[in-house]
Specification:
35% helix; alpha/beta; five-stranded mixed beta sheet; six-stranded parallel beta sheet
Length: 238
Amino acid sequence: MNILLLGYGKMGKTIEKLAIDRGHKIALIIDRGETEKLSQIKDTDIDVAIEFTEPEAAVLNITSCIDADIPIVSGTTGWLQKYDEIKSYCEEKEGAFFYGSNYSIGVNIFFKLNEFLAKLMDTQNYELEMSETHHTEKKDAPSGTAISIAEGIIKQNKKYTKWALDKNKKDENEIPITAHRIENVPGTHEVIYHSDIDNISIKHTAHSRKGFAFGAVLAAEWLKDKKGVFGMNDLLQF
């Protein structure tokens, strides 16, 4: 495939290497501050775009690819207040859009374990808390992955109806999320149920960006020649 890379930071460079190793070609790279290059993408032989940029740039990048009839895989977080708008735009334009808050296969297995545990704990007398830790370059907090985990709990556990970041005093229906930023940490997420008797926790620790990049490239391979709005459940057939 000929791939358009939107974003050429550490993640973009990792995706580039993995894509080339899998026999693909990087046809064009558009990095931060190069939005004028988006006008060029209609005239290129691009099969799919992979986008890991910043919340402020994501919507323009995604809509530009949809307008150019280029399927786009996005992993940028922090812009999801406009997700429904983008979904409707893609469907209206009959485009192809794939979004994941986290492209790691392991994290997506973790999502399912989290929902299963939340359902089991629905009637049990435990308190819940979450934490996430990422590198200091990550701007949004909590992470998109942490939000997905919290939403999975809310879907399966009647006790919780919302989440909040770093609240010392919460109401009983709120999931507290603590966010840490530490240099060179790819991503760690933990869910802890605790009581006076015992604690139950599940945790995912990423060792590098390779898992995220590999999943994004797999999503791009899967999305090519499709139309519609998709996510990791579609790719992994969960």
